[in-house]
C-alpha cells in the first residue's frame, strides 16, 4: 500500500487528507517527506507548509489554516501530529478540540490544501465516528513492522530503485547485522550506495561497511578463539573495551555464542539439517549456516570445557573476585595457548 501511494505522490496525484498511523516511524516519515517534497516547491515552504502538534494546538486552529488560500503557490500542506482523540487513550488535557469541526472538514475538504494527520500509535479506536469517517474519506496508511520476508524484499526494491543490484547472501548478511529496523537499514543502504555506485553489492561490501552489533563482533571474536588466533582475539576484545562495552557483558554474549555452537554441533551430529536446526533453536537460518562449519571443526570436549570455564568466570565477576579485564585475558590465554589436555579448570 505504501509503495502504491508513494508512486501516486511522485505522479503528483494527491488526496486532500492523509491519515498515517502506526509504530513504524520510517514508513510514516518517508511518506510525510514525500508529500511535502512533491506537493510544494522548496522556496514556497516558508509560506505554504505548516506543522502543528495537536497536544499543544486545538484542531480548529489547524482547520483555519487549511481553509486559507496558498500564498504564491498552487497548494499548501498542513501537517498535524498526535491526534490522540482518534485512539482510546486519554490525552494530556492541555487543549480542547472541536471534533465536530473536523468531522465537517472531512466531509468537505479544501481542494488546494493537503492535510496530513500523523498518529504514531499502534492502533486507532475503530469504534469512534471520527475514525470511521477518516478511514472512509482519507488515504489511510497503517505503518506497522514488516515481516522478515517483507523487509528483505524492501531491501531488494530499494537497491533496484537506484538501478543497482545486491546478492541474496548480501541481503541475508545485512539483515543479520542490522535487524528489522527500517531506519537503520535505510542509513546503511545509503552508505552502501555511495560506496558501490553501479557495482553489485556483495557480502564483502557488507562486511566492510556495515556496522556490526555487539553480538556480531563477539561472534567474530569466538571465531578467532576457535582458530586459536590470540592476537586477533585480543584485538577484537580491546576494540570492544574501547567502545565502552563491559567485560561482564562481553562474557555473557561469548557464553551465549559458545552454548549456541554446542547446540548446533549436537543437532548436526544427530543428522539435522540447516532449516531444522533453525526451527528447533528459533534463530535466523543464516546464523545457523555460518555456525555449522565452525561447530563441526570444534572439539566437543573443548566446547564443554569452555562452557564450564565461562560459568565459573561469570560467578567470579559477579562476586567481585578480581579485575574483570584481566580475567577475560586469562580466559583467552587459557584456551588459545594450551593443549586441550592441560585445560582442567580455572
How far apart lie the N and C ends?
Answer: 59 Å
How would you describe the shape? elongated
Please provide the ordered H/E string of secondary-structure elements: HEHHEHEHEHEHHHHHHHHHHH
The total number of structural domains is 3
CATH C-level class of the largest domain:
Alpha Beta
Into which percentage range does the β-strand content fall? 5-15%
Protein name: DNA polymerase III subunit delta
Keywords: DNA replication, DNA-directed DNA polymerase, Nucleotidyltransferase, Transferase
Family: Belongs to the DNA polymerase HolA subunit family.
Catalytic activity: DNA(n) + a 2'-deoxyribonucleoside 5'-triphosphate = DNA(n+1) + diphosphate
Q: What would your notes on this structure say?
A:
- This protein has 346 residues and is α/β, with parallel strands linked by helices.
- It folds into three domains: 2-143, 3-Layer(aba) Sandwich (Rossmann fold); 148-209, Orthogonal Bundle (Helicase, Ruva Protein, domain 3); 214-342, Zinc Finger, Delta Prime, domain 3 (Up-down Bundle).
- Helix content is 59%, strand content 8%.
- It has 17 helices and five strands.
- It is elongated, with a radius of gyration of 27 Å.
- Residues 340-346 have low confidence and may be disordered.
Amino acid at each position: 500500500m505504501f509503495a502504491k501511494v508513494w508512486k501516486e505522490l511522485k505522479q503528483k496525484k494527491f488526496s486532500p487528507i492523509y491519515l498515517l498511523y502506526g509504530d513504524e516511524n520510517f514508513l510514516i516519515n518517508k511518506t510525510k517527506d514525500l508529500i511535502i517534497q512533491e506537493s510544494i516547491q522548496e522556496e514556497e515552504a516558508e509560506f505554504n507548509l505548516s506543522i502543528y502538534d495537536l497536544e499543544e494546538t486545538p484542531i480548529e486552529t489547524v482547520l483555519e489554516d487549511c481553509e486559507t488560500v496558498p500564498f504564491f503557490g498552487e497548494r499548501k500542506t498542513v501537517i498535524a501530529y498526535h491526534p490522540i482523540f482518534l485512539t482510546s487513550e486519554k490525552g494530556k488535557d492541555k487543549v480542547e478540540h472541536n471534533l465536530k469541526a473536523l468531522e465537517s472538514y472531512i466531509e468537505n475538504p479544501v481542494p488546494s490544501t493537503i492535510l496530513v494527520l500523523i498518529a504514531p500509535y499502534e492502533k486507532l479506536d475503530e469504534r469512534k465516528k471520527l475514525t470511521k469517517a477518516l478511514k472512509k474519506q482519507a488515504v489511510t496508511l497503517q505503518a506497522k513492522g514488516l515481516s522478515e520476508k517483507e523487509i528483505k524484499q524492501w531491501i531488494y526494491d530499494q537497491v533496484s530503485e537506484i538501478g543497482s543490484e545486491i546478492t541474496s547472501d548480501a541481503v541475508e548478511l545485512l539483515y543479520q547485522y542490522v535487524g528489522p529496523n527500517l531506519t537503520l537499514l535505510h542509513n546503511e543502504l545509503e552508505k552502501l550506495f555511495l560506496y558501490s555506485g553501479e557495482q553489485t553489492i556483495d557480502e564483502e561490501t557488507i562486511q566492510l561497511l556495515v556496522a556490526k552489533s555487539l553480538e556480531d563482533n563477539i561472534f567474530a571474536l569466538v571465531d578467532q578463539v576457535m582458530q586459536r588466533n590470540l592476537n586477533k582475539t585480543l584485538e577484537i576484545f580491546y576494540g570492544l573495551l574501547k567502545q565502552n562495552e563491559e567485560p561482564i557483558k562481553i562474557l555473557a554474549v561469548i557464553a551465549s555464542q559458545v552454548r549456541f555452537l554446542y547446540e548446533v554441533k549436537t543437532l548436526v551430529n544427530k543428522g539435522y539439517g540447516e532449516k531444522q536446526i533453525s526451527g528447533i533453536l528459533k534463530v535466523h537460518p543464516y546464523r545457523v549456516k555460518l555456525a555449522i562449519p565452525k561447530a563441526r571443526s570444534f572439539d566437543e570436549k573443548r566446547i564443554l570445557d569452555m562452557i564450564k570455564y565461562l560459568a565459573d568466570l561469570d560467578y567470579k565477576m559477579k562476586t567481585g573476585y578480581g579485575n574483570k579485564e584481566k580475567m577475560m585475558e586469562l580466559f583467552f590465554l587459557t584456551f588459545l595457548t594450551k593443549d586441550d589436555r592441560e585445560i582442567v579448570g580455572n
